[in-house]
Amino acid sequence: MTVMSKRELSRQDRRRRILEAARHLVEQQGAAGLSMRALAASVGISAVTAYAIFGSKAGILRAIVEEDRARFAVMMDRAGVGHGIDSIFRLLTLACDLYRDKESFYRAVFQQYFSAGGVEIREILDPGRHRLWHGIVSGMADEGLFAIPVDPHLLTSQLENIFLAAHMRWCLRGTGVDLLEQEIGLGFAMLVKAIAIPEHQAYLGSLIERFGDRLLASAAALPVEGPGPPAGQG
Amino acid sequence: MTVMSKRELSRQDRRRRILEAARHLVEQQGAAGLSMRALAASVGISAVTAYAIFGSKAGILRAIVEEDRARFAVMMDRAGVGHGIDSIFRLLTLACDLYRDKESFYRAVFQQYFSAGGVEIREILDPGRHRLWHGIVSGMADEGLFAIPVDPHLLTSQLENIFLAAHMRWCLRGTGVDLLEQEIGLGFAMLVKAIAIPEHQAYLGSLIERFGDRLLASAAALPVEGPGPPAGQG
């Protein structure tokens, strides 16, 4: 082993330890609590070294998201997400399985996402997520699964609307991943059924009823009535 | 005129002036910039008097939302929102007309809604909005417009998911009310078409195509590709 490769090994090792510590810090204090100084101190290196490896706090968040993306791609390959009317539901289940594995970490990431200062994390998460889903949605369009032509970018944005708002409820209410998955599943099934070809209508209708039944079985899915008088502002 | 009624008139007048000043402060500085002290100073009364009338800052926000609710109810009556497959689209148009009238004020309210400290404004807006839309959605169900039974609370929550996420994009991107209305309109049309009875399928399909075409005509509706490498985390 040459000196260079030892150095490289040590760099890789520091990189891995910094990312592990960063995940831990985010889990404990939210993404806002992630400071280069605290991070460097927690792994026993100087802040200068941490900056040299990752460039910035955004660089660390980006590296974490990329680690997850790689892990997610392996999961997608294994599960064979790629095609058919079920592909977006398989994608949803995979994402939720990832959350189940590290729920407090992902909840902290999305809490930061929905905070006023969450610009960085949105800029890192959003384009990547849009590209991934757009790929799946374009594939479904190419397979001829849609009877009404909706631009794949626009359909992807609507799926993201359901996805994001359900995540906001998840963060605000502290409900579990199962409820998140069912709420998004119901919305996805409705959006896809609206434009699907006739042969998938009955199946998607049964998904809508199944997700609806599961949600109704959970009291947390129904709105908590506020104490105030009716205040209906659109 | 008795002394009592003069006093009452003066109280009503102070109340009106405080609410006007509050709307102005929110428009200028966001709902977070609304302090009882600043508000009282701006209308030349003591903070004690402002507290005596409204109880708290949340009381002032609630009073503003209730003023809007009353205004919105008059608009709804005039427009005859109440029934038919178009009722949620009429409701959407009315809400957007309200925004067009005072865009910077409503944008500030929703910016506060999506900030970490927006608990108060969410607690004031959400139950009232859910009740209003649930009323419309329940009415549509009672009219027999839906072929697939979805609990009206669950359908309302899905409509709110589209509504809220589109508002988040509106706040973050600074795009106009027209785009907001078309994005929500597309999502609403898709959600309703998924469960609508056969006689409304063609009409809702045409709405989906119309909203889609309008959105495609606006470059802002399409995603801005981020500069970073693909980072696809579900």
TrEMBL record, chains A, B:
Keywords: DNA-binding, Transcription, Transcription regulation
Residue ranges of the annotated DNA-binding region, renumbered to this chain: 35-54
One Pfam family linked to the record: TetR_N
Signal peptide: none
Record domain HTH tetR-type: where: 12-72
GO molecular function annotations of the record: DNA binding
PANTHER family tied to this protein: HTH-TYPE TRANSCRIPTIONAL REPRESSOR NEMR, TRANSCRIPTIONAL REGULATORY PROTEIN
This protein's name: TetR/AcrR family transcriptional regulator
